[in-house]
Structures are given as C-alpha cells and as structure tokens.
Design brief:
heterodimer, A: 309 residues, mainly alpha, MetI-like fold, 13 helices, B: 289 residues, 12 helices, elongated
C-alpha cells in the first residue's frame, strides 16, 4: 500500500512540471513591459530598460522558463510587480482562506448530498425524492455568483444574520461555503441516488434481505460502501468546478484568498503573481485527485489487493 | 445503402419517441426553441441602441412597471431589452465554443483512439496535463494573456474545453473500433478515412449531441461567471454576467437589477440540462432507473 502511495506521489511530479510549462507558456504570451509596471510612468526609459534586462525580459523563452523553475525549486517565485512583495509570502498568507473555503464546501456537499441521495433512493418516487431531485436539477443550473448574491440579499442585507464581506470570523465563511457547495451537493445527491438504486437491486442485497438482516444494516454495511466508489469519482471530477467556484466566491464576498489576488493580478498584469497562483490552484487540484485515488484503494478491497503483494 | 439509411432513421425515430415521453426534456426543448427565436428576432422585439445601450438618467432605477417590464438600471437602460439582446451573446458564445471544442477534441480523440500506439500515448499524455488544470482556471490564465472581450473569451473557453472532449471521444472511438462492423469494413479493404466517416462518426453522434447540450449549458455558466469577475465581456455590452457585476452595488435597494439577468441564465442553463439529460436517457434507455 505504501508503495502505491509513493508511486502516485512520484507520478505527480511530471504532471506539476507539465502544468508549470503550460501556464508559463500561456502567461509569457502577454505583451507587457514589467520594468515600466514596477517603476511607474515617471521613471526614465533608460532605467526601465536596465530593469527589464536584469529581470531577463528579453531572454529566449526556454531560458526564462529554466530560470523560473530553478528559482521556484528554491522557493523563489519572484516579486510582485505591483507591491514588490515576494510572491511566496503573498500566496502563503492567502492560501489558508482558500483552503478553509474549499474544505468547508467539500464537507457541506458530502454531508448533505450523500444522505439526501440515500434517502431519495430508499424512498424512490416519494415526495422527498421528487423534492430533492428537483432541487438538485435547479442547483446544478444556478450560477454560483447569482446564488451568492441572493444569499447576501436575504441573510446579510435583509435579515442581518451574516456579514456581507470579509474573512475574519467563522460567520464570514458560512454564506461563501454554501455558495461553493451548492452545485457539488446537487451532483453528489444525483449520483448517490442513481448508484444506490443500482446497488439495492443486486443479488447480494436480496440475499441480505432474505436472511432477515436489519434494513439500516443493509444500507450501511452492504449498499453504502459499493455506492461510494462512483460518488468519490464524481467528487474528484467536480473538484475543478469547486475550485473555480472558490475563485468567483472570493471575489464576490471580498475574501482575501488565492483566487481574489489572482483576479486582481490579472487586472494589473502582475505576471509573477498570476503564474504562481494559477500553478498553486492547479497543484491543489492534482493533490485532491490524488487523495481521491488513494480513497479508492482504501474503500475498494479489489484495488487494495492489487497493490498488496 | 438504402437499407442502411432507413435503419438509421428508425433509430432516431426511437430516440424521438422516447424523448417525447420525457416531460421535463420536452419543456426544456420548448424553452430553448423560444430562447433561440427571441435571440434571432431580438431587434424586432425591442430596439438595441434606444433601450439596451442609450443612457437616460431621467428614468434610472425604476422598479418593474408597464413601460419597463423588468425595470431600469442605474443608467436608465431597460433591463428587459438588455436581457433580450444579451440572449444573443450567451447563446452564440455557448454554441461557437462547444462547436469548436467538440471539433478540436473530437479530432484529437478520434486520431488517438483510432491509431492507438505511440500517437495515442503522446496525445493523451499532453491532454492529461491540460486536464490537470481545472477548465475555468485554464480559461482565466488564457484571458490573463490575451485579454478580455468576446473573441478572446471564446478562444479561452474553447482551449479549456478541448482536452475533456478529446478524452471522451477517444474512449467512444476505442470502444467502437473493436465492434464487429468496423473490423468487417477494414477486412474488406476500406480506407481509414472511409471507416472513420462512414462507421465511427455516425455511431459516435449520440454521445456527441448529449455532451454538446450539457456543454453549452456549462459554457454559459462559466462565460457569465468570468464576465461577472471582470475577465469576460465588459460593460456596456448587455451580457448577463456583466449585467450582474454592474448591478451588484445596488443589491440592497434595487435587487431586481440582479434578479432578472440571473433568472435568464438559470432558465437557459436549466432547460439545456433538462434536454441533455432527456436525450441521454432517450439515446441509451438503459440509463433510466
């Protein structure tokens, strides 16, 4: 098992290098004059050119990429063109907010979606089934930013229960997390329901029923574990959208996470920040997917057995 | 030859028959047809320059009334007119993006799946790296490089959509190329191009239509989200997400500025999702519980 985990972690390295290469290529398409951006409009042409030379702006692409990667390994991702702060410090300071948002959203989505899917499948065609299926369809079609605005309107502006913006208290995280979690919850509910419906028709469930096992025990012991594999697959596929949702929600709720600084940096053409924040978010996505794959092995004894020997 | 055509027709007749029985899908289809008609005839419904673009401070921030069904925004522009004309933008972006992504992804996936071996390996490893970047993040990175605006947004969304479709079509082609009718055709000496266009493409068309419908829905959400955070389409263009971005400052006292464009997005996306799900069940009846 440890060998499998180690192998997966090693396989992550070329992928992350590939990501940096793609993002670096895209970002270096941008026309721009970093020297001018850093020194401002008042600086002389000469000093701007000097700084550009020092930054290696005119170097060939491959050299630039090599230099960037060599520095990145040492933890130096450059300095923000805008504030002059080291990019690593900026991102480390903002990363916890994004991580908290994403984790809370995943927790909400699975803690609501999975039970709702199970209830819907066990009580198929009931009122609660129809209700949860209709809401699942609806929430999968509502754009996050609109849902967020409606939650702000109702719970912050009208009822005054939650603050509108900021990220100091845990109360600040409630509305944003719900906004991010909504579409993922909808998908998890649907997948849990349809997989569960398939599983409860299997022979081994009928056997368990026939031998008189308790109904809750059948759901818990026999059905749920087999249902979890497709559900976890979908969750892994959905993390990308979840991170996308996090970016939008950070901007909407004014939370100082990685997504917010990235969008700000794009407006200011602050390339070092854009490069590092895109790579960081893509790396999180890869690590989340790695965790999903490891969960598979944990849940499915067939996969575990493959790596036992 | 004739027989083949008739057979194809009966398959699609069966799909249509099953789709007709699926009420949500029919409702979705009707709403989409209505939206397309509105988008096509937007200029006949309400004048673009006069109501959707021209600023008129004397009628700013009016709540919905009989002259302005959905009210007016902070510049005195009619929200109904802006939504009607905005439907053109969202539907066009969705359609063009998905058409381009499916063509690009389909081509890469078909080549990889059909030829296999080294070509497959190289193409798919490159696609895997692209897939390791969440699509919306990839689109944001591309917009950071090329700038905002409608053509750039379409480029960004297309490129971020291609890898997913490439992987999907590779698996479709892979499963089809082991079918007996493909082997038979190759055995009698048909060329690769003939097999691809005569046998593989027609059989892959079902999953393509389903993915296109669901893909357009998703593209409309992503495009409006990017416009909302200022990275997509810029004001004063009446794109639905951009309208929400402009209106959000007025949320407390004039929420209708934000509510109506949002409902337009939801209605469009929801009906596309309903139709997509219905098509999926109609094409592959085994999926239905």
């Amino acid at each position: 098992m440890y060998k499998y985990i180690l192998k997966r972690i090693i396989m992550l390295i070329p992928v992350i290098i590939g990501i940096t290469f793609i993002v670096f290529s895209i970002v270096s398409f941008t026309p721009g004059n970093p020297g001018r951006l850093i020194l401002g409009v008042t600086a002389s042409e000469e000093s701007v050119n000097q700084l550009n030379e020092k930054l290696g702006v005119n170097d060939p692409f491959i050299i630039k990429y090599k230099n960037y990667m060599c520095n990145a390994i040492k933890g130096d991702f450059g300095k923000s063109y805008n504030t002059g702060e080291p990019v690593l410090d900026v991102l480390l300071q903002r990363f916890p907010t994004t991580l908290r948002l994403a984790i809370t959203a995943i927790l909400i989505a699975s803690l609501v979606g999975i039970p709702l899917g199970i209830i819907s499948s066990v009580k198929q065609h009931s009122f609660i089934d129809s209700l949860s299926m209709i809401s699942a369809l609806l929430f999968a079609s509502i754009p996050g930013f609109w849902l967020g605005l409606m939650l702000i309107l109702l719970f912050a502006l009208k009822l005054g229960i939650f603050p509108v913006t900021g990220d100091e208290a845990w109360l600040n995280y409630v509305l944003p997390s719900i906004t991010i979690a909504a579409p993922t919850t909808a998908i998890i509910t649907r997948v849990t329901r349809s997989t569960m419906l398939e599983v409860i028709r299997q022979d081994y469930i009928r056997t368990a029923k026939a031998k008189g096992a308790n109904k809750l025990r059948i759901i818990w012991k026999h059905s749920l574990k087999n249902t979890m594999i497709p559900v976890i697959t979908i969750m892994g596929m959905d993390f990308g959208y979840l991170l996308g949702g996090t970016i939008i929600v950070e901007v909407l709720f004014g939370m100082s996470g990685v997504g917010q600084i990235m969008v700000k940096a794009i407006r200011m053409k602050d390339m070092p920040i854009i490069m590092a924040s895109v790579t960081l978010l893509a790396a999180i996505f890869c690590i989340l997917n790695l965790i999903v794959d490891l969960l598979y092995a944990y849940i499915d004894p067939r996969i575990k057995a493959m790596y036992k020997s | 030859m004739m027989k083949n055509k008739n057979e194809a027709r009966t398959i699609w007749q069966g799909v249509w028959r099953r789709l007709k029985k699926n009420k949500p899908a029919v409702i979705g289809l009707l709403i989409i047809i209505t939206l397309i008609l509105i988008a096509i005839s937007a200029d006949l419904i309400i004048n673009y320059e006069e109501y959707a673009i021209k600023q008129n401070s004397s009628i700013r921030l009016q709540s919905p009334n009989k002259d302005h069904w959905f009210g007016t925004d902070m510049y005195g522009r009619d929200i109904f007119a802006r939504i009607v004309h905005g439907s053109r933008i969202s539907l066009t972006i969705g359609l063009i993006t998905i058409a381009l992504s499916i063509t690009g992804g389909g081509l890469i996936g078909a080549v990889a799946g059909y030829y296999g071996g080294k070509i497959d390996n190289i193409l798919m490893r490159v696609m895997d790296i692209f897939l390791a970047i969440p699509p919306i993040l990839l689109a944001i990175a591309i917009i950071a490089a090329v700038g905002s605006g409608i053509p750039n947004l379409i480029i960004a969304l297309t490129i971020s959509g291609i890898p997913g479709y490439a992987r999907l079509f590779r698996s479709v082609v892979l499963s089809l190329s082991h079918e007996e009718f493909v082997e038979a055709s190759l055995a009698v000496g048909s060329s690769n191009a003939w097999v691809i266009f005569k046998h593989i493409v027609p059989n892959a068309i079902g999953p393509i239509i389903v993915q296109a419908t669901l893909g357009i829905a998703n593209t409309i959400i992503v495009a409006s989200s990017l416009s909302f955070i200022g990275l997509g389409i810029q004001p004063p263009v009446p794109e639905w997400g951009a309208m929400l971005a402009e209106g959000k400052e007025f949320l407390r006292y004039y929420p209708y500025i934000v509510i109506f464009p949002g409902i337009a997005i939801i209605l469009t996306v929801l009906s596309l999702n309903l139709l997509g799900d219905g098509l999926q069940e109609a094409i592959d009846p085994r999926l239905k519980n």
